[in-house]
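pasting for the record
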Amino acid sequence: MPGTENGSTHTIVVGVDGSDSSIAAARWACEQAQVTGSHLEVVAAWRWPFSWGAPIPIPTGFDPAADAQSMIDQITEPLAREFPTVTIGSRVVEGHPAEVLVEASRHADLLVVSSRGHGEFSGMLIGSVSQHCVSHAASPVVVYREPDQNA
């Protein structure tokens, strides 16, 4: 069976944050999983908002973990329909995205991240999370960047 070696399943992990570029990276990772017979694991990180000054008012019923799961579901459901032969799993993890993805890379054959997401410096060629993953991941890393439509 493709994607298995001595009974183990190959895994591609992709980090998503709901940005268009992370959705495109997830689609690319799904295509790669289909080609290689790998399992795809879609990972999102969340954190409680914090402030160094005055406390941040948190609305009643605010649930960042549920919001992250909803975001992942909106990404994975269309991928599952488009790529029915790919096994797609998802995980929502509390923590900083860079640290969560580096940890996920320890059990992956490949980590896929987008070049830019919802970070504060969206004009950068490569985001800080992507840079951290490239420098610290335990597996190879693909930093997906959408092709320039004007080229």
